[in-house]
Write a structure and sequence with these properties.
The protein is mainly α and about 100 residues long. It has helices spanning about 15-45, 50-65, 70-95. α1 (about 15-45) runs antiparallel to α2 (about 50-65) and α2 (about 50-65) packs antiparallel against α3 (about 70-95).
């Protein structure tokens, strides 16, 4: 019994090409999570740190666990998410509020 495979445009068989696609797709999702973690952590230092800080922490951790190629961005996202929560704790203890305000 013979197995039929058809060639893809790159010259490799379809069976070997399809095995690489899920891994590269998962890596692309992990890279997107790393970037999202960084952006949410950065925006969270200014607004909605109670929501965006934990989101940045979760996405950064997931990106690192899934083997992202953007490891630096995931680590920055984790650091900024932690800074968001520390900033929230500082605001609550000093002013008794969870929002920024400038002036007296």
């Amino acid at each position: 019994m013979t197995t039929l495979t058809h060639a893809t445009p790159s010259g490799t068989s379809a069976a070997s090409g399809s095995a690489d696609r899920p891994a590269s797709r998962a890596r692309a999702h992990a890279d997107g999570m790393a970037v999202a973690s960084f952006i949410l952590g950065l925006v969270g230092t200014l607004v909605l740190n109670v929501v965006l800080g934990p989101c940045a922490l979760v996405l950064g951790g997931l990106a690192l666990a899934r083997g992202t190629t953007r490891r630096g961005r995931a680590l920055l996202g984790l650091a900024l998410g932690a800074a968001d929560l520390l900033l929230l704790a500082l605001l609550v203890t000093t002013d008794g509020t969870v929002s920024w305000h400038l002036g007296a």
